[in-house]
């Protein structure tokens, strides 16, 4: 009798584990299109993120009934992608709201801890040369080491305090205006993510460390920016009104003045 009860218990546990696995691992059940819709990543992209973060999350989950690292990554990515309340993310992934809260914080800390490894300026001459050759192949513009622009990150449901109004951008949306520099391979090499949405791109640049480094000659090469930036020896921007053949040719030289496309 005891053996029979143990068999039933183990069978039910296996069934619960199978349901748990099927509900909480979108890699097993989501199409590529649905994966991107819910998590803003391709399947390969998600797997890459899991591979990177799993060792950092594994040590915190070596207890019974712990939430697997790949589930933690999916929970956090869903929250990052939508900004939904913890309750909706909780329902979708079959875990409690308190667990969602802890997971988002844990994964966020893990990602932030890796920023200096993945977001860094090229320092060797070989890397600089490869980057310049890459930009020349894309834009036919020599000496370029990066493309600079800003992007507005929505702050839906975020507590903004007494200075809430400074986060309203020109489209009436509450955002952070985040400055990014990327190399010829679309890798981000510099980030400034502390300015509210009402701040102009040029103001953010002129108050950043990268501005000082280029102005002081401590960084070499050229950045490409759009017409919202001031022209500098190290920052090439298009003419607003190219009224001569030379200026028109200059404007047409880079493949894009606002991104690394």
From TrEMBL:
Cofactor annotation: a divalent metal cation
Pfam family, one: DDE_Tnp_4
Transmembrane regions: none
Chief location: cytoplasm
UniProt-annotated location(s): Cytoplasm; Nucleus
Gene Ontology CC: cytoplasm; nucleus
DDE Tnp4 domain span: 148-244
Single annotated GO MF: nuclease activity
Keywords, comma-separated and alphabetical: Cytoplasm, Hydrolase, Metal-binding, Nuclease, Nucleus
Family: Belongs to the HARBI1 family.
Function summary: Transposase-derived protein that may have nuclease activity. Does not have transposase activity.
Stated name of the protein: Putative nuclease HARBI1
């Amino acid at each position: 009798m005891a053996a029979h009860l143990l068999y039933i218990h183990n069978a039910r546990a296996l069934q619960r584990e199978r349901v748990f696995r099927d509900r909480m691992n979108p890699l097993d059940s989501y199409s590529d299109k649905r994966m991107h819709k819910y998590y803003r990543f391709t399947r390969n992209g998600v797997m890459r993120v899991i591979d990177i973060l799993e060792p950092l999350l594994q040590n915190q989950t070596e207890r019974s009934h712990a939430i697997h690292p790949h589930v933690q990554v999916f929970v956090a990515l869903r929250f990052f992608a939508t900004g939904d309340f913890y309750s909706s993310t909780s329902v979708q992934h079959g875990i409690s709201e308190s667990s969602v809260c802890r997971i988002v914080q844990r994964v966020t800390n893990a990602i932030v801890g890796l920023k200096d490894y993945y977001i860094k300026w090229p320092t060797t001459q070989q890397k600089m040369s490869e980057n310049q050759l890459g930009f020349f192949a894309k834009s036919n513009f020599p000496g370029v080491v990066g493309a600079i622009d800003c992007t507005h990150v929505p702050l839906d449901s975020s507590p903004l305090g007494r200075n809430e109004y400074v986060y309203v951008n020109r489209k009436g949306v509450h955002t952070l205006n985040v400055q990014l520099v990327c190399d010829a391979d679309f890798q981000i090499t510099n980030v400034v993510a502390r300015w509210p949405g009402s701040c102009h791109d040029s103001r953010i640049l002129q108050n950043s460390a990268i501005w000082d480094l280029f102005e002081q000659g401590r960084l070499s090469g050229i950045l490409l920016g759009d017409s919202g930036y001031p022209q500098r020896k190290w920052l090439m921007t298009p003419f607003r009104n190219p009224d001569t053949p030379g200026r028109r040719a200059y404007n047409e030289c880079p493949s894009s003045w606002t991104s690394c496309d």
